[in-house]
Amino acid sequence: MWSLDRDPSKSNGDLLAHVEDPLTPPSFILMERGVASPAVLKRAPKTFAARGALRGRPARGHLDRR
Question: How does pLDDT run across 52-61, given as a tens digit for each residue?
Fold first, then answer.
């Protein structure tokens, strides 16, 4: 996250953020002061599809046996 203005004395408080996590594509987001929700300026294509993914319990591994 960084300020859009080089000189802090002339800044209006707007911020630019690079947001990324394992499930959503990387995005550049503009967070304007006084605006309730940030605006997505650019987003990379999706690389993860959750369709068909199953969540299960991990199998007991050899480290659990004593």
Answer: 777 777 766 6
Q: DSSP string covering the chain, please?
A: -EES-SSGGG--S-EEEEE--SSS--EEEEE-TT-SSPEEEEEPPP----TT----PPPP-GGG--
Predicted confidence band at 35 (pLDDT cuts at 50, 70, 90)? confident
Would you say 3 and 15 are in contact if contact means Cβ atoms under 8 Å apart?
yes
**CB 6: neighbour CB atoms within 10 A?**
7
pTM of the predicted protein model:
0.55
